[in-house]
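for the writeup, i need someone to sanity check this before i put it in the appendix. the sequnce is what the collaborator sent (i think, or maybe the updated version? ugh). structure was predicted straight from it, no edits. if anything looks off just tell me and ill rerun, i have time this weekend
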Amino acid sequence: MWTLITIFIASLLAMLGMLLHRAWQIKAGRVFVDEAAPQKMIIPEITFASMKKNVLYFAKRATHTVAMTFINLWVRGTHKVSKQVEKISNKIVKKSEETGEKTNISSFLVTVSEYKKKARRLRERIKREEHLDQQM
C-alpha cells in the first residue's frame, strides 16, 4: 500500500517538475510558439450527428444483446422444462404399468368429444345442402 502511495506522489512530483521546466522555457524564450499554425485540440469537437451515430450504434448493440440473451434463455428454459415433463410422464407411465391400472377417460370428456363430432357432421351436412341449393 505504501509503495503505491509513494509511486503516486513521485509521479505527481515528476509531472509538476515537467510543467515548471516547460514554463521556465517559455519565459526564457527558448520555445518558439508559432501563432500562425493552428493548435491541436485536445478535446475533439463533438457534433450532434456524431453523437446520434454513437447513440444509435450502442442502442442497436444493446437491444441485440438483450434480445439474443432472452431468446437463448427462452430456448434453454423450454428445453429443460420439456425434459422434466418427459421424465415425470415416464415415471407416471411406469408406475401405472407396475400397478396394472388403466387410465379411464372421464365420461364427460367422451360426451364432449361425441357432441363435437355430431356438430361437425351437422355443419358439413348444412354446407352441402346450401351448396346444392345454390347450384339449382
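The mean pLDDT is 85. The chain is about 80% helix and 0% strand.
thx in advance!!
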